[in-house]
Write a structure and sequence with these properties.
Helix content: 25-40%
Distance between the termini: 27 Å
CATH topology: Jelly Rolls
Largest sheet: 6 strands, antiparallel
Number of strands: 6
Structural class: alpha+beta
Number of helices: 3
Number of domains: 1
Shape: globular
Order of helices and strands: HHEEEEEEH
Length: 133
């Protein structure tokens, strides 16, 4: 894990999903994560695209949007600094396309993102370890 990702271990541990993970499990996950920055209006992902990453929002605001059949956008949720999002699709099995658009609003943002496959692999290790103990 690089030094610039080190502060994220404690911040991720504050998320219920990662609260029980060992330091080595978080270090492994963070070793596969990357920092990402966007500008106002940029799309992180769009509805119906395959879900491949999850995000931990470090700074800024991201709106999760859904588009109606008539083409009207509706804000589903507003993500703020410290929020984890797009991780739930990892638990949905094969249907990884059931997520809304994600657009940066109204400022630049910085997030940590990680591929869902790495997250799932680490989650399985965490579950297996808890079954042994």
């Amino acid at each position: 894990m690089t030094e610039d990702l080190l502060p994220y271990a404690a911040r991720l541990r504050q998320q219920p999903l990662f609260a029980v993970w060992s330091p080595s499990q978080l270090e492994t996950l963070l070793g596969e994560c990357r920092l990402h920055a966007c500008e106002n209006g940029d799309l992180l992902f769009i509805e119906k695209d395959p879900a491949e990453q999850f995000y931990f929002l470090d700074a800024g605001v991201v709106e999760l949007l859904s588009t109606s059949a008539e083409g009207k956008e509706k804000v589903v949720e507003i993500m703020q600094a410290g929020d984890l999002f797009a991780e739930a699709v990892a638990f949905m099995g094969e249907d990884t396309r059931s997520r809304p658009d994600a657009r940066v609003k109204p400022e630049c943002y910085k997030s940590l993102f990680c591929h869902l496959s790495v997250f799932l692999r680490a989650t399985r290790v965490s579950c297996d370890a808890s079954l042994v103990n």
